[in-house]
Design the sequence.
């Protein structure tokens, strides 16, 4: 027995070495399989998280597109919404950048996983290095999980922003509807008022036409009586609706004081005016307008600095004389036109004489 045992000792060393090598190799393979399992689980969870994030991002993109279509209709009426949409677009770009960073991190993890898979060819690497690799992978996984959580928070914040913009858009639409309703009511009211105004205008025009026709009848009668009283003088004439006196029969040259002859003629006119005023109905608010006109030869005196002053003073002198003859002051009006409304634009003495005149017109106020 002893010989047999002593005969087998020389080979016992190799036999003991082989099981030890097998055990070490088995342990190494188990560690590698454990690492691969951890990486596969990490890749699975990351894939699930990324797919959920992609679905959320796709849903967010669809909501943003719908919001963009709605905001395009209201862009001109609310600049703030456009600004918010721009900010949201910028945030989505940041999200896309974050996604690209996440993809880069996943690529890094895949590279690390490929490196871990290559550990099978480096079985002599120490277990300390392998554990450090595992800790690094776990740290990267935690970082990826934290980044994914932040991405979810950002997605929720973007969704809340979209909901806020949607509510603001609905409020703006409601206000726009109210304004449209008010505008339609205002337009209808305006149309009704325009119809009433048109009716009143037609009635007023008819009434004015009637009053003008009545006044024309009394004007014709007044002018007819004046013709009889004043006679057929060439320097006193009727032209249209005006009764014209040449200035020479009323005033001296450059003067606004009624002469004796002018007072006589104005007295006749006052008598005729008082007679005809008795027949004019009280509903006709008539007035005798006295217009003074001069020729275009300038006058510059201390009393009359211009032709306008002279024409106005002459018209006012006639009005004051008629008031002294019993014509009510509220029935008279004095107006000066100077040289600006000539009857004859030539420079002949006859034209200048014709333009120096007092015109009287029976009209309404």
Sequence:
């Amino acid at each position: 027995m002893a010989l047999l045992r002593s005969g087998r000792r020389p080979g016992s060393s190799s036999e003991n070495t082989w099981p030890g090598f097998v055990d070490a190799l088995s342990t190494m393979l188990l560690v590698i399989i454990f690492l691969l399992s951890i990486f596969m689980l990490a890749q699975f969870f990351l894939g699930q998280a990324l797919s959920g994030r992609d679905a959320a991002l796709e849903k967010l993109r669809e909501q943003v597109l719908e919001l963009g279509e709605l905001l395009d209709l209201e862009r001109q009426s609310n600049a703030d919404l456009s600004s918010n949409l721009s900010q949201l677009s910028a945030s989505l770009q940041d999200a896309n950048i974050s996604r690209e960073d996440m993809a880069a991190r996943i690529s890094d993890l895949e590279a690390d996983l490929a490196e871990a898979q290559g550990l099978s060819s480096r079985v002599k690497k120490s277990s300390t290095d392998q554990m450090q690799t595992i800790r690094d992978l776990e740290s990267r996984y935690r970082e990826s999980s934290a980044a994914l959580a932040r991405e979810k928070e950002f997605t929720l914040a973007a969704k809340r922003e979209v909901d806020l913009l949607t509510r603001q858009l609905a409020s703006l639409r409601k206000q726009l509807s109210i304004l449209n309703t008010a505008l339609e009511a205002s337009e209808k009211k305006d149309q009704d008022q325009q119809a009433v105004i048109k009716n009143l205008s037609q009635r007023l025009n008819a009434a004015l036409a009637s009053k003008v026709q009545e006044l024309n009848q009394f004007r014709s009668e007044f002018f007819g009586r004046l013709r009889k009283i004043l006679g057929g003088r060439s320097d006193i004439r009727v032209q249209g609706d005006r009764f014209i006196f040449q200035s020479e029969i009323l005033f001296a040259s450059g003067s606004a004081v009624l002469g004796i002859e002018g007072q006589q003629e104005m007295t006749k006119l006052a008598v005729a005016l008082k007679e005809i005023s008795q027949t004019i109905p009280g509903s006709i608010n008539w007035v005798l307008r006295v217009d003074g006109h001069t020729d275009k030869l300038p006058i510059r005196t201390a009393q009359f600095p211009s032709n306008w002053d002279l024409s106005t003073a002459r018209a006012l002198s006639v009005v004051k004389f008629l008031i002294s003859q019993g014509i009510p002051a509220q029935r008279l009006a004095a107006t000066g036109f100077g040289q600006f409304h000539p009857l004859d634009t030539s420079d002949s003495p006859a034209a200048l004489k014709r333009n120096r005149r007092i015109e009287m017109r029976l009209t309404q106020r």
